[in-house]
Amino acid sequence: MAGWPHHTSMDTTKIILSGFLEGKHVFAIFHKVDKKVIGSLGMDAAWTDREEEYKHLKTKNIGYVLAKDYWGQGLVPEAVRAVIDYGFNVLGFDAFSIEHFVENVRSRRVIEKCGFKFVKMGMYYAKQLDKHFDEMRYILMKGQ
142 near 88, Cβ under 8 Å? Predict the structure, then answer.
């Protein structure tokens, strides 16, 4: 559902984690009770940067992944809200964008819970899977 295949080796996982650690705006989702990292949430270039209507805004795109055993516990909406607050109030962003594959109903629920507004349909090419996905694109403006 995230656009890449499951890791097949510890070496692959180490490469992915190394990339996350080098990123300036990638956060681990740490489960306090289980004392382990169960996912990540990052801010990256926004689809809005390519849209005339929005490219004047200081915007980041939010993306997240969570281990399946932890789905449905409200952890991702909590993490997304924290990053939104940090982005608006500390980093001075004007907006956040986000998207999900059409068939990913769980991500749609997270996005709606966090107050994002649907803008348009789009297409995402997952290079690692060599596959195109229809996606729904959203935006959340500061003060909305």
Answer: yes
Structure tokens at 46: 């926004």
The Cα–Cα gap between 26 and 42 comes to 4
4-61 pLDDT tens trace: 455 566 776 666 666 666 666 788 888 999 999 898 898 988 999 999 999 899 999 9
Residue ranges of domains in the chain, CATH in brackets: 10-141 (3.40.630.30)
79 CB neighbour count, 10 Å cutoff: 22
- 8 A C-beta contact, residue 95 and residue 139: yes
The per-residue pLDDT for 124 is 80
The DSSP annotation for the chain comes to: --SSPPP-SHHHHHHHHHHHHH-TTEEEEEETTTTEEEEEEEEE--GGGG-TTTTTS-EEEEEEEE-GGGTTSSHHHHHHHHHHHHHHHTS--SEEEEEEETT-HHHHHHHHHTT-EEEEEEEEEETTTTEEEEEEEEEEETT-
Please give the model's pTM, rounded to 2 decimal places.
Answer: 0.81
